[in-house]
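Long-time lurker, first post. I've been practising inverse folding by hand and with some scripts of my own, and I keep getting stuck on stretches where the structure tokens seem ambiguous. Below is the full token string for one chain I'm working on. Before anyone asks, I'm not after the true native sequence, just a reasonable design that respects the backbone. If someone could post their per-position residues I'd love to compare against what I wrote down in my notebook.
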């Protein structure tokens, strides 16, 4: 993760970056992603809702298909798959 930001890549893809972390470490990583990723496109693959909440746009997939897209607030208002998670 550090290399991607130090390289100053315009697009960063991160797959389950917080999967093996405890809550405190995850919170620290999420804050860091929020500040370092401001002027970049960050594609974050995650199963943790606490990480997804930070995204401007969330794409929800079920069985390999996109079932919903939107911000955290928009998806909660839809009362669909995301809100049930």
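-- Answer (accepted) --
I ran through it position by position. Result:
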């Amino acid at each position: 993760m550090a290399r991607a930001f130090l390289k100053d890549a315009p697009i960063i893809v991160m797959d389950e970056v917080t999967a093996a972390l405890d809550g405190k470490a995850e919170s620290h990583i999420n804050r860091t992603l929020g500040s370092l990723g401001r002027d970049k496109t960050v594609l974050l693959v995650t199963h943790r809702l606490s990480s997804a909440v930070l995204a401007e746009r969330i794409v929800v997939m079920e069985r390999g298909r996109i079932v919903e897209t939107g911000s955290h607030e928009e998806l909660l208002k839809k009362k669909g798959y995301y809100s049930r998670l």
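A couple of notes from the structure itself: Residues 23-36 form the longest helix (14 residues). The CA atoms of residues 1 and 29 lie 10 Å apart. Happy to go over any region you disagree with.
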